[in-house]
Amino acid sequence: MPMRVVVLGAGVAGLEAVLALQALGEGLVSVELVSPDSEFVYRPLAVAGPFGLGQARRFPVARLAETAGASLRAASALSVDPDRKTVETSDGQIDYDVLLLALGAKPVAAVPGAVTFRGPQDEKALEAVLSDAQEGRARRLVFTTPAGSSWPLPLYELALLTAVHLVDAGATQVEIELVTPEPEPLQLFGMSASAAIAELLALHGIQVVTNTVPLDAADGLLRFVGTGETKADRVVALPRLEGPRFEGVPHDANGFVPVDEHQRVLDCEGIYAAGDIADFPVKQGGLAAQQADAAAEMIAAAAGANVDPQPFRPVLRGLLLTGLTPRFIRTELGKNRTELDTEALWWPPAKIVGRYLAPFLADQLELSTPPPRAGTVEVDVELDRGPSGAWQRI
User: Fold this and answer.
1) Over the Cα atoms of the chain, what is R_g?
2) Which among 3, 170, 305, 352 is placed 20 to 30 Å from 176, CA to CA?
3) Which residue in 371, 328, 315 sits closest to 42, CA to CA?
4) What is the distance between the alpha carbons of residues 96 and 309, in angstroms, rounded to a whole number?
């Protein structure tokens, strides 16, 4: 009999895992996808929505699951019993041979008084901020991200797109400031990329304050942790992510599940975790897909497929919407050297880069073309474990 694989969650990691298992373990595994969501939301373009440059796309999960070769149970996952190898859902109990957790994480507001931008559900709130700026009710906008935010790129997109949008609208007197806990702008991508991003921000007149953690926004001010503050008529902040604290598996203080380099949940035989639920510190769609691939290779090999499972060795790729004529930056793997050009140096088919998911979206959902009118900065960075076991850039 085929190995029974249950995948909890129909986001990027869940869909990538289903596709990978279909490709690697065809005939050797049967996959059941469990999700309460009726739609898969392609979120990366949500930042462009308020500016009329794009929008989050939505697609029926049932159709995606069928096309990807999985059965679908429309239910919420409640808990797992690793000893009995069962999952309790809102639609009854499921037996499994192997379980993959791809339940994501919950974005929560972390800067009181700010407009928190979590995705499509906050587009209207951001549109109101833009309207206030255009009509003179807000002369100073501040974009910020809380301490511990693992993926700050949308913060830079929001600030840059706002700057271009307001200039196009004739609101040239609005000041924009970006406040970040990072030592340098988009430090995650390395110093050469940071310098290029800093130059881009300066070109748009965006002031940058680094090494600063926001506390709260009130009375025309954004206050900082410790001491200090800045004037702010409106503050837009990224959320903080919390893990789901899924019952039956270990998790850290923030609710994220500890895994090894093959995405196996520690001390839970036959259970894997991929995507934002896993304890890897950077939460990003492309990395979620890479984690799902690592888990799928292990599962397929255990089912008898001729696969040499490779550990998760994350390569970070970012597509930064800017509103400018396209600019491309490539950071060579393992080298402190960056290429910058207005011509494409490297182009993935979509914002979410996944070995199986990206071509699937391109073929099935027509997402292979770049976002209209939005300039881009492409960055490619490899991460590895240091001597202590912690992830670091190389």
Assistant:
1) 21
2) 352
3) 371
4) 21
- CA-to-CA separations, 96 to 73, 80, 251, 272, in angstroms, rounded: 14, 10, 21, 12
Q: N- to C-terminal Cα distance for the chain?
A: 43
Q: What pLDDT score was predicted for residue 378?
A: 54
User: Helix or strand or coil: residue 93?
Assistant: strand
3-state SS of 319-344 is EEECCCCCCEEEECCCCCCEEEECCC
DSSP calls for 281-326: S---HHHHHHHHHHHHHHHHHHTT-S--------EEEEEEE-SSS-
Which amino acid appears at position 313 of this protein?
A: R
Question: Distance (Å, rounded) from C-alpha 312 to C-alpha 382?
Answer: 11
User: How many CB atoms within 10 Å of residue 195?
Assistant: 15
Q: Is it the case that residue 346 has pLDDT exceeding 50?
A: no
Mean pLDDT, range 379-386, rounded to an integer? 56
* pLDDT tens digits, one per residue of 47-57: 878 887 766 77
Q: Which of 60, 28, 68, 62 is nearest to 292 (CA)?
A: 68
CA distance 333 to 384: 11
Tens of pLDDT, residues 290-314: 999 999 999 999 999 999 999 998 8
